[in-house]
Amino acid sequence: MSERFSHSKDDLQARVHDMLAYARAHGATGCEAEASQGYGQSVTVRKGEVETIEYNRDKGISVSVYIGQRKGHASTSDFGTQALQDTVDKALTIARYTAEDSFAGLPDEALLAREIPELDLYHPWDSTVEQAIEQAKACEAAALAVDSRINNSEGGSVNTQESLFVYGNSLGFLAGYPTSRHGISCAVIAESDGGMQRDYWYTTARDAIDMESPETVGRRAGERTVRRLDARQVKTCQVPVLFEAPLAAGLISSFVSAASGGSLYRKSSFLVDSLGKPIFAPLVNIVERPHLLKGLASSPFDNEGVATRDRDVIRDGVLQGYFLGSYSGRKLGMPSTGNAGGNHNLIVSSTGEDFAALLKKMGTGLLVTELLGHGTNMVTGDYSRGAAGFWVEGGEIQYAVEEITIAGNLQDMFRQIIAIGTDVEARGSKQTGSILIERMTVAGD
Predict the structure, then answer these.
(1) Distance (Å, whole) CA 406 – CA 113
(2) How far apart are the C-alpha atoms of 317 and 390, rounded to whole Å?
(3) What does the pLDDT look like over 69-119, one tens digit per residue?
(4) Any residues with CB less than 8 A from the CB of 221 and at least 6 apart, and which?
(5) Whole-angstrom distance, CA of residue 247 vs CA of residue 216
């Protein structure tokens, strides 16, 4: 375990155990607690000079107590015995004055994780500040070297983060594990005929050896910036739209939000009562794989200790399951799906085309590489976003496009997916290639 952690896993478990015992002894009918600590380092270089060096170190412990159907919550960053007992007392006081909620309470004991698989999520990166500075400089230099029209920079950054947490509840669950996450990023600015464009690239992984090199990140940032120069508008039209892989993951995020318990029981989702119904095109298959080694969203259990498991979420376009925690599950009359806290490694199956093949399949249309604003109505599915990207004709990129809006409805967009690429960027909890949608409105001149 990293020496940068001031408390061991055993120490955190002991403190959580003691808080739970104290809560039960003082009137809680049920309780849960989580203790965590983290360490991070971030370096940013701009125009070859160090701009920022940041360190973060934090710790905290929180407790939720239940007195019947009444819930109270409190937290502290003081790990002293008296402070922890005071925190439990505050939570108990809050619970006594809180209205009853018949859906509140700990998870179903039968769903708790009893075996904790090792998922290889902790890989400390012994990068000194001096080494991080050199990597950030190399990243930025690679971006600036791409083209003489790149004349400014927002900087190259290198960061590392390590965390350790323990969760326990009064049903006998007590477990935790360390994680790490590292990243390299760069953003630069290019100018041509008075017009300026900016773009970026980044890489992230649990293990530093799995990241792209600083030079590769910088070069891709530079290339992406230069290709956006001399952008223009297009005429308003209805054409196929290809969402580049990083943005395609955003479409999947919209699906997750609409299929999550909170949105469903509040009736604020266009996917209410959609279980077992076709909501995507038949070619779409999405699986959840919580136990991928080194996965950025891997976890043996969710935020409530409920065991995570492999499952089909979308099979041949049909919705197989929601994303539920215990509370939202009870609201909907369903069991928790192990998604308290979010989804775990959603993988969208490709239809087999690489990026060039997707462009060929699209023929004439719009490739979207940047989205602006938050124009998504999760109640109706209406979708309208500012966008930038490239106009495509004959399956080939013709020129950069900016100051346009793309619009549609997510229900129609999901059903009109006609291809999913092999160009997956595994940089978050959703893994998908670029997604080609048959038709959307593009508003321009």
Answers:
(1) 44
(2) 29
(3) 999 999 999 999 999 999 999 999 999 999 999 999 999 999 999 999 999
(4) 139, 143, 185, 186, 187, 188, 199, 200, 201
(5) 20
CB-CB contact of 378 with 254 (8 Å): yes
Dump pLDDT digits (tens) for 12-60. Answer: 999 999 999 999 999 999 999 999 999 999 999 999 999 999 999 999 9
Rounded to an integer, what distance in angstroms lies between the CA atom of residue 89 and that of residue 53?
A: 39
- Of residues 400, 404, 375, 438, the one with CA closest to residue 243: 438
Gyration radius from the chain CA atoms: 24
Q: Residue 312: what residue type? A: D
Distance, CA of 445 to CA of 443 (rounded, Å): 7
The CA distance from 363 to 301, in Å, is: 45
pLDDT digits (tens, 9 = 90+) for 283-338: 999 999 999 999 999 999 999 999 999 999 999 999 999 999 999 999 999 999 99
Per the document, the length of the chain is 445
Classify residue 200 as exposed, middle or buried by CB count within 10 Å of its CB (0-12, 13-18, 19+): middle
On whether the CB atoms of residues 216 and 373 are closer than 8 A, the answer is: no
Residue pointed to by tokens 């955003």: 250
3-state secondary structure the chain: CCCCCCCCHHHHHHHHHHHHHHHHHCCCCEEEEEEEEEEEEEEEEECCEEEEEEEEEEEEEEEEEEECCEEEEEEECCCCHHHHHHHHHHHHHHHHCCCCCCCCCCCCHHHECCCCCCCCCCCCCCCCHHHHHHHHHHHHHHHHCCCCCEEEEEEEEEEEEEEEEEEEECCCCEEEEEEEEEEEEEEEEEEECCEEEEEEEEEEECCHHHCCCHHHHHHHHHHHHHCCCCCECCCCEEEEEEECHHHHHHHHHHHHHHCEHHHHHCCCCCCCCCCCCECCCCCCCEEECCCCCCCCCCCCECCCCEECCCEEEEECCEECCCECCHHHHHHHCCCCCCCCCCCCCEEECCCCECHHHHHHHHCCEEEEEEEECCCECCCCCEEEEEEEEEEEECCEEEEEEEEEEEEEEHHHHHHCEEEEECCCCCCCCEECCCEEEEEEEEECC
HSE-CB at 154 with a 13 A cutoff on CA atoms is 14
Question: How many whole angstroms separate alpha carbon 319 and alpha carbon 273?
Answer: 10
Question: In this structure, what token pair is assigned to residue 249?
Answer: 């993951």
CB burial readout 403-439, b (16+ within 10 A) else e: ebbbebbbbebbbbbbbbbebbbbbbbbbbbbbbbbb
